Amino acid sequence: MTDPPTGQLIFIEDDAALRRMLATALERRGWEVVALTRAEEALERLDGTELDADVVLTDLFMPGLGGMELCRRLRELRPEIPVVVLTAFGSLDTAIEAIRAGAWDFVTKPVGVDALSIALDRAREHRSLRREVRQLRKEIQGWAGGDLLTGESEAMRTLRGLVDRVAVSEASVLIRGETGTGKEVVARAIHARSPRAGRPFVALSCAALPEALLESELFGHVRGAFTGANERRPGLFQQATGGTLFLDEIGEMPMALQVKLLRVLQERSVRPVGGDREIPIDVRILSATHRALEEAIEEGRFREDLWFRLNVIQIDLPPLRDRGHDVLALAQRFVQEFAQRPGCVVRGISPEAARRLLAWSWPGNVRELRNCIERAVALTTREEIGVEDLPPRVREMASSSAPATDLAAGGFVALAELERRYVLQVLDAVGGKRGEAARILGLDRKTLYRRLQEWAGPNDPPSGDL
């Protein structure tokens, strides 16, 4: 009986009996073993696309190319693959020479299978960790390079320029935008381009927790502060020390906590729940909201002094419907992301499906588009996403709306006109109730009212009721 799959191993040993014995023993432990007699053959196969490996296991002294030289060559050719060396000479000098040549570990002969298995498992885990680190570096480079701020519309070029300027500052930033426009993405991009990039980025949604838990999450608590507080726990302000704390949906924070947050920002220190001393903090605050905080201030639901503290710099994110052909650039990026899954054959989007994507108004913004593409990639059996793979509301856009009639006739409609028609269609469907229409569209009422005023003629009456 063999163990669960462990990984792929290239095993180079010129002694046929030892090679067969160890290969059989390691296969029983889950390794997929490629047994070779010459180091030259391993180099040839690893140099192309014919063979990959999680670990290389090689004898040290062999006819032709020896294990030491193989380590040196692999360090240049495939540095990501760890090499474990077998040697009958277990002296310290031999071990040091092997490590200097590029070996990750060594095992002496006569070989104990248990000891060898442990060494190979550690080498495989080492490669796995290196792979994860490379992926994290890629993601960080993506944030810093603007990969997450995809798009070449004027709105996105302006946004990227603003993010670059804001990032080097220590000022608090308030990011505003409709639900799904990517407020946390922008916060991460600011952090990744800032001098704090090597320190933690900690995010919290103020709408996700009740007031008591939110206070403990932000400021931490001492042991015995409340029932169930069996040990001291640092809050997110302490966890983000030296880095950035992102407070999403800041408009949902209870008034009592707003007072405490204001004090933290003024004093640059926190007092854990149940504690009796202040703890200094070094954190940059980024916050976000989809609401008009000015209205919340007028209604007494948000403190004006806290708003001034948080809103030193304001960034307004454009809705997806105002970003033109960025829709297709984002859609293709999501296709590439989801196409990485095993068995996926999709590579792109058909022209007709692309037209439907452009015609839809995306009330859920980038988040809705991402979900749409994930669904389409999961459903399609072809290399291109077709109209039939899109959600019904997007798929039926052409047959149920005026903008699609123009497309069917061979023409195109400006996105601003598509937006106007869709908003009016929703408003009509809810009987002119602007509050309900704003909720469906993902807008605040003030934004909807402003757009209706822009679209109305000088003698037109206001559209709908509040």
Question: Describe it for me?
Answer:
The structure is a single chain. The chain is α/β, with parallel strands linked by helices and about 475 residues long. The protein folds into 3 domains: about 5-135, Response regulator (Rossmann fold); about 145-310, Rossmann fold (3-Layer(aba) Sandwich); about 320-410, Helicase, Ruva Protein, domain 3 (Orthogonal Bundle). Helix content is about 50%, strand content about 15%. The chain has helices at about 15-30, 40-45, 65-75, 90-100, 115-145, 155-165, 185-190, 210-220, 235-240, 255-265, 295-300, 305-310, 325-340, 350-360, 365-380, 390-395, 395-400, 400-410, 415-430, 435-440, 445-455; strands at about 5-10, 30-35, 55-60, 85, 105-110, 175, 200-205, 220, 235, 245-250, 270, 280, 285-290, 315, 350, 385. The protein has a 5-stranded parallel beta sheet, sandwiched between helices. The chain has a 5-stranded parallel beta sheet with strand order 7-10-13-6-14. A two-stranded antiparallel ribbon has the order 8-9. Helix 6 packs across helix 7 (about 185-190). The longest helix is centred in the first third of the chain and has 33 residues, at about 115-145. It is extended, with a radius of gyration of 30 Å. The termini are far apart.
